[in-house]
């Protein structure tokens, strides 16, 4: 049967697979429906099959690497800001200050083509460093946009995950995305790049694990997460620049709390922003389309970079850069339903300005 995703969707509440048991409901009703207990317990290939049968928004594809990816997710305690962080550290953007019309679609990659970092997909490997990886990715974009394309540094996720320490959380076991920004505001961050990349201060500490299309194979992922790398206050051999002189510093930090138009306005003015959300197992099997949680258990928290938005067949979505390499999802990106705080995605976003 061919699904047509308009303002309504198809939903099957029965165990029968015949189309006679399918009927249409409003999308908001679909999102409001509790996930059946049986569906929450599904995993692996059974989960993928169920997801593809029960909704028209996105396609799931089974991969044996999915369970490994879920190991690198953070504990739910890292969803949101540090409980000891005073809110006045971040300027709270409550209302949009943009006087123009918000377009139906927006893509930072197209608007700021002179900032290559925006389309730079990272690979966090077998380390729960998404909080630092997505922060460094967002910061790289922000300093480029703010400088009018003059500063094209890829900033180091390893510098943040290794040197922020207990203030940020627990390194490869997870951390607070807000504290990554607070750390760079106080201590700065140096240049970075991919594993073993020359010509930068601190490339990423861990190799991509497993097989990736058209990429060098370094080995399979270890059963346990990598240990948090030691903080080294110097650049790699041959870089030719001192660690402290290579650093850039955040001047102001901003947070946007669950307000769609304020998030859009911030994206249009300042470029990509950092987000954090709840991940369920069905997300790890995402292949393409607009993600809507359909089945599987809660797996943890995950931090990512929001780059734009759009509408497809009447369904609003956010466009997001992940950190699971370019052969996951839509060339390293995913789209998630917009405007309903799905999986708490719109709940707490952050960005900042740099000292130039």
Can you offer a commentary on this structure?
The chain is of the alpha+beta class. The chain folds into 2 domains: 1-33, no CATH class; 34-354, Cathepsin B, Chain A. 24% of the residues lie in helices and 21% in strands. The strands form 4 sheets. Strands 3, 5, 9, 10, 11, 12 and 13 form a 7-stranded mixed β-sheet that branches. Helix 6 packs across helix 7 (157-163).
Indicate the low-confidence ranges by residue numbers.
1-25
Instruction: Note the total helix count.
Output: 11
Strand/helix succession: EEHHHEHEEHHHHEEHEHEHEEEEE
What's the rounded overall pLDDT mean? Answer: 88
Number of domains: 2
Task: Assess the beta-strand content as a share of residues.
Answer: 15-25%
CATH architecture of the largest domain: Alpha-Beta Complex
What about the largest sheet?
A: 7 strands, mixed
CATH H-tier superfamily of the largest domain? Cysteine proteinases
Shape: globular
């Amino acid at each position: 049967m061919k699904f047509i995703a308009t303002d309504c969707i198809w939903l099957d509440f029965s165990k029968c697979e015949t189309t006679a048991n399918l009927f249409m409901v409003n999308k908001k009703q679909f999102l409001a429906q509790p996930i059946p207990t049986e569906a929450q317990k599904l995993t692996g290939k059974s989960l993928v099959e169920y997801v593809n049968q029960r909704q028209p928004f996105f396609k799931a594809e089974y991969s044996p690497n999915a369970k490994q990816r879920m190991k690198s997710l953070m504990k739910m305690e890292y969803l949101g800001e540090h409980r000891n962080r005073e809110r006045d550290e971040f300027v709270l953007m409550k209302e949009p200050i943009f006087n123009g019309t918000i377009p139906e679609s927006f893509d930072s990659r197209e608007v700021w083509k002179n900032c290559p970092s925006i389309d730079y997909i990272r690979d966090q490997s077998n380390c729960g460093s998404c909080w630092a990886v997505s922060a460094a990715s967002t910061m790289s974009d922000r300093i480029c946009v703010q400088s009018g394309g003059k500063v094209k540094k890829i900033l180091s996720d390893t510098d943040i995950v290794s040197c922020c320490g207990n203030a940020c959380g627990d390194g490869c076991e997870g951390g607070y995305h807000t504290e990554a920004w607070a750390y760079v505001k106080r201590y700065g961050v140096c240049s970075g790049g991919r594993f073993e990349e020359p010509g930068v201060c601190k490339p990423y500490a861990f190799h991509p694990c497993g097989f990736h299309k058209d990429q060098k194979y370094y080995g399979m992922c270890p059963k346990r997460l990598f240990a948090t790398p030691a903080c080294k206050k110097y650049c790699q051999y041959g870089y030719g620049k001192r660690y402290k002189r290579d650093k850039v510093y955040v001047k102001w930090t901003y947070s946007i709390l669950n307000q769609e138009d304020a998030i859009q306005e911030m994206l249009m003015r300042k470029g990509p922003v950092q987000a954090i959300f709840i991940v369920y197992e069905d997300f790890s099997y995402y292949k393409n389309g607009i993600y809507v949680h359909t089945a599987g258990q809660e797996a943890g928290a995950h931090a990512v970079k929001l780059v734009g938005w759009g509408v497809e067949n009447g369904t609003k979505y956010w466009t997001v850069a992940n950190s699971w390499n370019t052969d996951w999802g839509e060339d390293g990106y995913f789209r998630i339903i917009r405007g309903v705080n799905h999986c708490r995605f719109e709940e707490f976003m952050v960005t900042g300005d740099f000292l130039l």
